[in-house]
Amino acid sequence: QQQVKQSPQSLIVQKGGISIINCAYENTAFDYFPWYQQFPGKGPALLIAIRPDVSEKKEGRFTISFNKSAKQFSLHIMDSQPGDSATYFCAASEGPGNTPLVFGKGTRLSVIA
Amino acid sequence: EAQVTQNPRYLITVTGKKLTVTCSQNMNHEYMSWYRQDPGLGLRQIYYSMNVEVTDKGDVPEGYKVSRKEKRNFPLILESPSPNQTSLYFCASRPQGIRNYEQYFGPGTRLTVT
Question: How far apart (Å, rounded) are the C-alpha atoms in residues B45 and B56?
Fold first, then answer.
């Protein structure tokens, strides 16, 4: 049973365009929603995270939008650059305890010039 | 520099030959995990440990063992590797508390079992 569903599986965006990756969850106990970025040959690294008490969080060109009632959250990459080409994972956690992070299956983003 | 290290980075072995992948972190994190990454399947947790001598199964534990004798080290053991364990493996650690979603991953170990 997949607890976090991520789409699309792959995405091709023109340089300067907006990349949008979506995730949906069922477990209402999830309380933290981080996004991880993985470049080829590297381990994933935390990119940005949001808690459900806010609807949006922005860090530079990266924005998380969160819709608590729909149980959905998304990552927007504005002005996408070739250097953003990577695999992106959404994740969810049940708060500050020791429950494992639950990851989506990942989205491979390619930004072409 | 805060980091998670894994060794070896690449490993080719044969079916049935026991192997160990080491993992070490220098951030004094209590929580450590092992994941495998396969195309189309994302990151799947194999085992995790909440502290020394405390380990538990993740989503895909079959064929793997772990131990946590020291806080900084969390080795992954394949007693009798099989070809279906060919994968990219990541060790990770994270802090306790409100920033526990900030997980630090190692650089990965690419394992091929023939």
Answer: 11
Short-list B78, B80, B67, CA closest to B36? B78
Which residue bears the tokens 């989506």? A104
Separation in Å, CA B24 to CA B1, B6, B77, B93: 13, 7, 14, 9
Interface size between A and B, measured as CB pairs under 8 A: 60
Of B31, B42, B92, the CB nearest to A105: B42
Residues in chain B closer than 8 A to A43 (CB atoms): 4, 90, 92, 105-108
Q: What is the pLDDT along chain B (114 residues), one digit of tens a residue?
A: 889 999 999 999 999 999 999 999 999 999 999 999 999 899 999 999 999 999 999 999 999 999 999 999 999 999 999 999 999 999 999 988 777 778 999 999 999 999
- CA dihedral (B27, B30, B36, B42) in degrees, to 10, reads -90
Q: Which two tokens stand for residue B88?
A: 């990219």
For residue A87, give the chain B residue with the closest CA: B42
Sort out which chain B residues have CB atoms less than 8 A from A36's CB and list them.
Answer: 103
